[in-house]
Amino acid sequence: MNVPIQIVFRNMDRSDHIEALILEKAGRLDKIYDRITSCRITVEIPHKSHSKGNEHEVTIDIAVPEKKIVVNRTASGPERSSDIAMIAFNDTLEAAKRQLEDYARKRRGHVKIHEEPQPAARITQLFADEGYGFLETYDGREIYFHSNSVVNDKFDKLQVGTEVTYVEQSGEDGPQASTVKVKAKVAATE
Fold this sequence. Notes:
Layout (H helix, E strand, L loop, with lengths): L4 E6 L5 H11 L11 E7 L9 E11 L2 E11 L3 H28 L11 E8 L4 E6 L4 E5 L16 E9 L2 E9 L8
Parallel strand pairs: 1-2, 7-9
Antiparallel strand pairs: 2-3, 3-4, 5-6, 5-8, 6-7, 8-9
Helix pairs in contact: 1-2
């Protein structure tokens, strides 16, 4: 990572082994997003209580341009203290990675775009032997489609009158449907 990772141990002794593992794993965060400006990881035992077994809390605080990502996880159990600390760290690191990936996607402009609802039409002509047909849109236009345009290889199941949705594009001889899907039937409720 381009910036130093700061590791803080609270209410527990510093562990060279845990610190080395944390530095190795957290050092890969810049592969997700290379403009991290600071990274602070706190490993602590919140309360020394023997009734819950060993409990560790890990907080990862990552600063990136225009945002701060802070993730906190706790793990406890009968395992050795160093094992519990690493379980908590791994859980925290995975959550931090997901948030950093989301941030990086948004910064790069790679956000999920929801598709516009596709228009509906009705099949008016089918030429099964030749592998094409025509749709009639609800505004009365006729659109050509080929058997290869039908999703899930359902061309042979189509019939005149079948309701479909489609994606329209310009063809050599006028409008054509590049994607044709049989419209899902909605069950009637009484």
